[in-house]
Amino acid sequence: MNPLPSHPEPAMPGGVVPPGAGSPPSLPLHLGEGRGGGAFRRPAFTLVELLVVMAVILVLMGLMGGAMSAARTSRKKQATQAMIARLDDVLRQQFATYASRAVPALAFGSNRSAARAAYLRRLASAEMPDSWADVRAIQAGSSGLPRTGPQDAYVGVLTSATAAPTDAFADAECLFMIVMQGGIADCLDCGALRMADIGDADKDGAPEFLDGWGNPIRYVLWPAGLELPPGSGRFFSSTAPFSSGTPATAPGGTLRPLIFSGGPDGINATRVNGSGNLAAGAQCGDPAAIDFGAADGPGTADNITNFDAEVAK
């Protein structure tokens, strides 16, 4: 049989045979091999390059950690502001009722208006106490006031078998008691506040509302010494609450209850009431005689209060 006809490679012009003609096509180099058959080596990272990469990673991790920490702080601050606002709503409603409360016939003397205002401030101190000293005065019958429903409830808390209140966080404990156990301003249960963070910082059986950082939310009924912003002078008027006539002007108007958190650092540098109001008699709640709410050391700059929104306007 005749062999199959061969198909010679066509010659290039001039009779030149193209390179590789008649030979099998070359295969690609194996991965990792050089043309000489040796292994292909990548240049290694230097120690300096590794250190640079590690430094960049650490910087990025630091930035991410800082951003996450700032976000957590912001969430805690917003939660604290919302809690303080809810508590403020309850206290404002109750506080507003005293201006129109009935006053029993008393020997007012020559200044009936001043005596009436003093009586109403004492009544507010008994029904919105910010210290256990006032509750003890009610219990002992030395308040000089007729007993009301809220006062009876407070004495019940003080004498409860499950609580032995101390003065460490008395103002915060009284705030919880007023809102959740005193029945004021139709807030015997305060639905939304049942879901609030509640704790007992001093383990005395008397609970407190907690801020976003797990610290008790504090309370001052007559914060005459408050300065907002700190160092700007007294926030409230020098005219005593419930007095007749036009009060002296002030950024915060007439004296009202203060609710505040120590903020991210948890430092309480605001002067709270540790001695009670009722013992002051006619000077109870009189700005000229008290300085509760004033700065009591460094640490007030990051405090969160129920008046922050007013100051920001």
Task: Spell out the blueprint of helices and strands.
Elements: H1 47-96, H2 112-127, H3 132-140, H4 149-158, H5 170-181, E1 198-199, E2 208-209, E3 218-220, E4 258-261, E5 304-305, H6 308-312
Antiparallel strand pairs: 1-2, 3-4, 4-5
Helix pairs in contact: 3-4
Structure description:
The N and C termini lie far apart (110 Å). The chain has six helices and five strands. β1 (198-199) and β2 form a beta hairpin. The radius of gyration is 38 Å and the shape is elongated. The protein has 313 residues and is mainly α. The relative contact order is 0.13. The mean pLDDT is 85. The protein is 33% helix and 4% strand. It has one domain (71-312).
Features:
two-stranded antiparallel sheet, 33% helix, 6 helices, mainly alpha, 313 residues
Structural class, judged by helices and strands? mainly alpha
**Order of SSEs, N→C?**
HHHHHEEEEEH
The proportion of strand residues reads under 5%
Uncertain runs are none
Question: What do the pLDDT scores average to?
Answer: 85
Largest sheet: 3 strands, antiparallel
Residues in helices, as a percent range: 25-40%
Give the helix tally. Answer: 6
Neighbour order of strands in the largest sheet: 3-4-5
What's the Cα radius of gyration?
A: 38 Å
Tally of strands: 5
CA distance, first residue to last residue: 110 Å
User: What is the count of distinct domains?
Assistant: 1
Shape: elongated
